[in-house]
Design brief:
about 800 residues, Kinesin, ten-stranded mixed sheet, 20 helices, 17 strands, about 70% helix, binds adenosine-5'-triphosphate, Kinesin_motor_dom_sf, cytoplasm
Length: about 800
């Protein structure tokens, strides 16, 4: 019977157990893929809903659930090993003890009934255990969730910490890259820069103070104001310095607080990590409850051995997962350790920065102290300087005050002076008017006196001029030959030759003398008139003009130019330029103007002939240069005449210009070494003026204007052949002229006029009763000094000739 009941129980248990195994296997498969907690719970609930009355099933489910619960607990290898050593703790031992208890009961008289009761008791216990297991399972799930959430939170905290550290690092990096320093360093640098600017402004202030001390003569008020402003500036600088120091201390406090907070956070995090570790350890220490459950389940049935193996397998899977979790925990711990190290490094860095900041702060404080000292020194120096300056200004001010006190009497006297001056100024216009009137009167008196005196002087001058003219005329009448000397200026074309320095000097204060430097000696010559080298044609003609007038008045006149070749004879007699003509043109112009003036009383006839004496006598006005001869006029007057000579009556000055141009064209000229256009002949312009007056009758006068040929020496002119013959003829005629002059000078009874055609033709002009002017042309050049001396000697001889008083030729 007992065996029968046991068999029934076994069958009953096996049938129900199969279902439990299937469900457990399904749960294990689900556990291997899904989360164990929720699946077990789901399985449990299904069982609850669908199979609650079947207690056998419930005990199996309890066992499986206890096994599944053990996967969340930390069941280790230690449990497996302990199962063989400690039989009480293994399912096999439980099964054996259960068997022993069954055999004991088998010996008792209650039999199957007790067994059934115990079975029901066991079922109750199982359900109880199952409830406990479910509870534990839910607790374990909850703890697992908590652990997960804590790990997540911890992970988040670590992430936060990391991100915070990264942020700090980034900020640090940014600050370093931006300014090369941390915030504090940046502030320190800013402060250093501000200190620099303060130093500079202090230096500027010192400079200003020095300038101030270097300027002693400014007004005291301005300096006081400047002093005040400087003091104010120094105070401002001090205040700003204090502000900077306060800012620095605030920053330091802030950085300290920040550091403290950071330390606090770190400490908290460490505490938190420690707490979490403790909790984890605690959770590990809760294994015995599960072991107990396992033992309890083992008692139920030997059939659970298989389940136990399966459960072990599952345990292995779970332990692997646990080891994975452990690995993960270790990794997390490693991460925590690293983050600890990192935070430790950061702390070190922060400490280093702190030390640096402290150092910089000390340096800054030192610098500020130095600046303070310097500032105080500067302020003291400025103050002492300004005090000295102020003292000196005060002294000046007192001195000025003294002077001001001394000023009023002077001011009073000045006021009185000013008042008197003012009254004088008021009366000044009256004084001024009266004075002007007086001055006007005096001036008018003086002017009238002056004009009176001027009139007298003018009268005297006129008388003097008249007397001079009279005397001159008397002299000319007595002497009747005047010698004028014209010095040719040194021209540009003469300057490029050697020996072209001027040796002839004239005296501007003495118009009748000139000096020639010859062989180192000065030789002076006295003549009637000496023209300066720069004398104009007009000036020369002014000396000739009276003679031309004399011609109209009834005197024979002869004007001839003498001198070496190229000395300016033709220039003086004939040509200058178109606007600057020579004596010939000017004389005729003057003649016609005089005739015009006298036309009311006199009627004049002017005839002109031109003769060239070139070996023979030639008519310059005939076309082919007719050869002529000089003869005595057969009218019995004894005057000379040239038969066949063309005589042209001229009515106007324009007419005579054409005649002169024709004569000039026909004159023979050749180039010599001395003159490019040397006149190789004596040219005579013979003007006959016949005036008729009813009262005094008719008067016929002659005016010979002679341009002699050059008096150069033959060797010097380089003449050969025909030119030599010319030169010889020229020299012969000039020699004859000299002889005539010599005879006249010596008052010889015989004057050799007929020795040459020249002297023969000039006989009328050079003879007694004529008026003659000789213009001696000389060169100033050193190369011509010999010729110049010869010409001047001749001129001086002529100067001593007296032709006797001139006589009018009135018929
Ligand atoms: N006073 C003067 N001012 C300027 N030039 C002068 C003067 N006198 C003479 N000459 C110049 O000197 C040169 C020679 O002068 P000019 O022909 O009159 O000499 P000359 O004595 O007549 O010579 P010759 O006997 O050979 O005919 C001319 O070119 C003339 O223009």
């Amino acid at each position: 019977m007992y065996a029968f009941y046991s068999l029934l129980v076994y069958i009953f248990y096996t049938v129900f157990r199969k279902e439990e195994e299937e469900e457990a296997l399904e749960g294990a498969c689900r556990d291997s893929t899904d989360e164990p907690g929720p699946v077990s719970m789901e399985t449990g609930s299904r069982r609850k809903d669908g199979h609650a009355p079947r207690t056998g099933k419930k005990s199996c489910a309890r066992f499986s659930e206890s096994s599944s619960c053990s996967d969340s607990d930390e069941l280790s290898d230690e449990d497996e090993a302990g199962a063989s050593d400690i039989p009480a703790c293994t399912p096999l031992a439980a099964f054996l003890s259960f068997k022993q208890e069954t055999e004991k009961r088998r010996a008792t008289p209650s039999g199957v009934h007790r067994l059934v009761e115990s079975l029901y008791g066991l079922q109750g216990e199982r359900s109880k255990l199952r409830g406990e297991l479910r509870l534990l399972h839910s607790q374990l799930e909850q703890k697992e969730r908590d652990r997960h959430s804590r790990i997540q939170a911890f992970q988040e905290q670590i992430d936060e910490l990391k991100s915070c550290i990264e942020e700090r690092e980034e900020e640090l990096l940014r600050l370093r890259t931006a300014t090369g320093a941390t915030d504090s360093e940046k502030r320190v640098l800013c402060l250093a820069a501000e200190n620099e600017s303060l130093k500079q402004s202090l230096g500027v202030t010192q400079g200003l103070l020095q300038q101030l001390s270097a300027i002693p003569s400014q007004s005291s008020t301005v300096l006081i104001k400047e002093n005040e402003s400087l003091r104010g500036r120094v105070q401002q600088l001090e205040i700003s310095l204090q502000q900077r120091a306060e800012q620095l201390s605030q920053l330091e406090r802030k950085s300290e607080q920040r550091e403290w907070r950071r330390g606090e956070e770190l400490r908290k995090r460490e505490d938190r990590v420690r707490e979490l570790e403790l909790e984890l350890n605690k959770e590990r220490g809760k294994e015995p409850v599960v072991k107990y459950v396992t033992q309890t389940v083992e008692v139920e049935s030997p059939a659970t051995v298989k389940q136990l193996t399966k459960a072990r397998q599952r345990n292995e899977v779970l332990s692997e997962r646990l080891s994975g979790q452990n690995e993960r925990c270790k990794q997390l711990e490693e991460q925590i350790r690293k983050s600890d190290e990192y935070s430790c490094n950061l702390q070190h860095k922060i400490a280093a920065y702190e030390r640096e900041i402290c150092k910089l702060r000390e340096e800054l404080l030192k610098e500020i102290g130095h600046l303070e000292e310097r500032k105080e020194e500067a302020v003291r120096a400025a103050a002492s300087c300004s005090a000295e300056h102020f003292q000196s200004l005060q002294d000046q001010f007192f001195a000025l005050q003294k002077r001001l006190t001394a000023l009023p009497p002077t001011l009073r006297s000045m006021k009185t002076d000013y008042a008197s001056l003012r009254s004088q100024v008021r009366n000044f216009s009256e004084f001024y008017g009266a004075a002007i009137n007086d001055a006007k009167k005096q001036i008018s008196v003086a002017i009238s006196e002056m004009s009176e005196a001027n009139r007298d002087l003018l009268e005297k001058y006129r008388k003097e001029v008249a007397l001079r003219r009279k005397l001159h005329e008397q002299l000319v009448e007595l002497k009747n030959i005047r010698v004028l000397c014209r010095v040719k200026p040194v021209l540009k074309e003469d300057q490029h030759e050697e020996g072209q320095s001027a040796v002839v000097t004239t005296d501007p204060n003495n118009e009748s003398s000139l000096t020639v430097l010859s062989k180192g000696k000065d030789r002076s010559f006295e003549l009637d008139k000496v023209f300066q080298p720069h004398a104009t044609q007009d000036e020369v003609f002014q000396e000739i003009e009276p003679l031309v007038t004399s011609c109209i008045d009834g005197y024979h006149v002869c004007i001839f130019a003498y001198g070496q070749t190229g000395s300016g004879k033709t220039y003086t007699m004939e040509q200058g330029s178109v606007d600057n003509p020579g004596i010939n043109q000017r004389a005729l112009k003057h003649l016609f103007s005089e005739i015009e003036e006298r036309k009311d009383m006199w009627s004049y006839t002017v005839t002109v002939s031109s003769v060239e004496i070139y070996n023979e006598v030639l008519d310059l006005l005939s076309k082919d240069g007719e050869k002529l001869d000089i003869k005595i006029n057969p009218d019995g007057t004894g005057q000379l005449h040239v038969p066949g000579l063309r005589v042209i009556e001229v009515r106007s000055f324009q007419h005579i210009k054409k005649i002169l141009a024709t004569a000039r064209r026909n004159r023979i000229t050749f180039g010599t070494q001395m003159n490019q256009h040397s006149s190789r002949s004596h040219a005579l312009l013979c003007i006959t003026v016949q005036g008729t007056d009813l009262a005094s009758g008719t008067k016929t006068t002659k005016m010979n204007l002679v341009d002699l040929a050059g008096s150069e020496r033959v060797w010097k002119s380089g003449a050969e052949g025909e030119r030599l013959k010319e030169a010889q003829n020229i020299n012969r005629s000039l020699l004859a002229l000299g002889d005539v002059i010599q005879a006249l000078r010596g008052r010889h009874t015989h004057i050799p006029f007929r020795n040459s055609r020249l002297t023969y033709l000039l006989q009328d002009s050079l003879g007694k009763g004529s008026k003659t002017v000789m213009v001696v042309q000389v060169s100033a050049l050193e190369s011509n000094v010999g010729e110049t001396l010869c010409s001047l000697k001749f001129a001086q001889r002529v100067c001593k000739v007296e032709l006797g008083p001139a006589a009018r030729k009135i018929e």
